[in-house]
Design a protein that fits this description.
single chain, 496 residues, alpha/beta, Rossmann fold, six-stranded parallel β-sheet
Length: 496
């Protein structure tokens, strides 16, 4: 008969988890032994926060919850809070609280204490809840003695039920709202996922309408596309928002706006997997369902209608002018990110850190598809980039992965250099350093066995990046860039 730990690991596998990120300890020993027995790879992280960040990014890149096993939830709070803020599906398993309390209920969608009677149901429910809109982290607490107790397996599916088809009446209303607008504008949010992106592009081109995205939705519309105008709140977005007479919000989550007012006065048509919740905007019309399917169903309803009255050439000119301003003269963070983009192949993934001063780097990386620019919501998670890059390299084997961070963010997760080395992951870490007297990151990286090179100008950055990209394991480029400010605005109010 299987143990409780066996059933939890079997449930993770049935939910689609490919690996579990763990910080080994006494509380996690039965679960990790069960993972080994059932061939679920265990990735050893050096901190609880990093384990949860890796699990969150894994959930974000797949259609299954990521999994983390740590000793105590309190030690993993920054990583769990990141998953909640970023709507990343994740299951975090910990030891049970001795007094039976439900710790930090605001950080997780739910906490459940697992017993021998509830193991099968508990893991299935946790997987479904993590994937339910809005997605997020679910906490399972397991006492070490209960982990090794015998338990009876139950036939309970951990997969969420498919969404129902969108209502025809709602589709008809949405089509009428779009037809009545002369200058509709599309805004893509984190709920616009890879499967939706092709329909989003076709929809925008057919109208035609400019497309903005939130930071979490980078690449939903290929950023080099002439109709892609960058991030909400950053020029030229405000100039275009002011001219729109309809906002078509595809997968925009209120969490992406920080509870602040919607940065436009035009009416909003909301398209998403769940009804819009929050006070940032109140939609004039709404269609609930799979966004890609909704856009597909809207196509025949809009066929033969008048095209939107946007000057596409002017839109493209606004974009080009802003792109030129972004690349300020000198050896800047944006210049280094631009060189990295030039030197890397199509499909490269950049994990860009949160924290102060990282907006310019996020804007300088043009994502061509969802998942190619991994950015924490509102740039709120400093120390995100290195664990995210490790998770991305594991989730997308064969793809080039960059980690872009300032020294302060990199130091928050520096122990994970050992993780990257132990897994021989070909991650290139680009440290953007504008401090006049900062730590010698080259020496630090070499201390972990990571090849590292300094760069003080564009030619040096190009040489260092080429050398780093030619290696088989992790490598670091320490770029001493010009001190801020660059020609990049502060984080807009709508994203703070």
């Amino acid at each position: 008969m299987p143990t409780v730990a066996d059933l939890l690991i079997q449930g993770l596998r049935q939910a689609g988890a490919d690996r579990v990120f763990a910080v080994p300890g006494a509380a996690s020993r039965p679960l990790l032994a069960a993972a080994e027995a059932y061939n679920l790879p265990v990735i050893r992280a050096r901190s609880e926060t990093a384990a949860c960040l890796m699990a969150a990014v894994t959930g974000e890149l797949s259609e299954a919850p990521g999994a983390a096993v740590v000793g105590r939830l309190v030690d993993a709070l920054p990583g769990v809070a990141h998953a909640r803020r970023d709507r990343a599906p994740m299951i975090v398993l910990t030891g049970a609280d001795p007094d039976g309390a439900e710790p930090f209920p605001a950080v997780v969608k739910q906490t459940q204490v697992v017993t021998a009677d509830s193991a099968s149901h508990g893991i299935a429910h946790a997987a479904r809840l993590a994937m339910k809109e809005p997605r997020g982290p679910v906490h399972l607490a397991l006492d070490a003695r209960a982990a090794e107790a015998m338990a009876v397996p139950l036939a309970t599916s951990p997969r969420p039920a498919p969404l129902p088809a969108p209502e025809p009446a709602a589709l008809d209303t949405a089509a009428a709202v779009i037809v009545a607008a002369s200058r509709p504008l599309v805004v893509a949010g984190l709920g616009c996922r890879p499967d939706d992106a092709g329909w989003l592009r076709a929809f925008a081109e057919a109208l035609p309408a400019p497309v903005l995205s939130t930071l979490k939705a980078k690449g939903a519309m290929p950023e080099p596309h002439p109709l892609s105008l960058g991030v909400v709140g950053i020029e030229p977005a405000p100039s275009v928002l002011g001219r729109a007479d309809l906002i078509i919000a595809v997968g925009v989550d209120d969490a992406e706006l920080g509870g602040r007012p919607w940065p436009a006065t035009a009416p909003v048509l909301h398209i998403g997997r769940a009804p819009h919740a929050g006070e940032s905007f109140r939609p004039t019309a709404e269609v609930v369902g799979e966004p890609g399917l909704i856009l597909e169903e809207l196509a025949p309803r809009l066929r033969g209608k008048a095209r939107a009255d946007w000057d596409v050439a002017e839109v493209d000119r606004l974009k080009r002018e802003w792109s030129a301003r972004l690349r300020a003269p000198g050896f800047t963070a944006a210049a280094v990110v631009g060189i990295a983009r030039e030197l890397t192949e199509a499909g490269t993934i950049a994990a860009i850190d949160g924290g102060e001063g990282m907006l310019g780097a996020a804007l300088a990386w043009p994502a061509v598809a969802r998942g190619e620019g991994l950015v924490p919501n509102a740039l709120a998670t400093a120390g995100f980039a290195l664990p995210a890059a490790i998770a991305a390299a594991l989730a997308r084997p064969g793809r080039r992965v960059l980690c872009v961070a300032r020294p302060a963010g990199l130091l928050r997760a520096v122990a994970e250099l050992e993780t990257a080395v132990s897994l021989a992951l070909p991650i290139v870490i680009v440290a953007l350093d504008d401090e006049p007297a900062s730590l010698d990151l080259v020496a630090l990286a070499r201390g972990f066995g990571v090849p590292a090179l300094p760069a003080a100008d564009e030619a040096g950055a190009r040489r260092a990046l080429l050398a780093a990209l030619g290696g088989r394991g992790p490598a670091l480029v320490h770029a001493r860039v010009a001190a801020r400010p660059e020609a990049v605005p502060a984080l807009p109010a709508a994203l703070q």
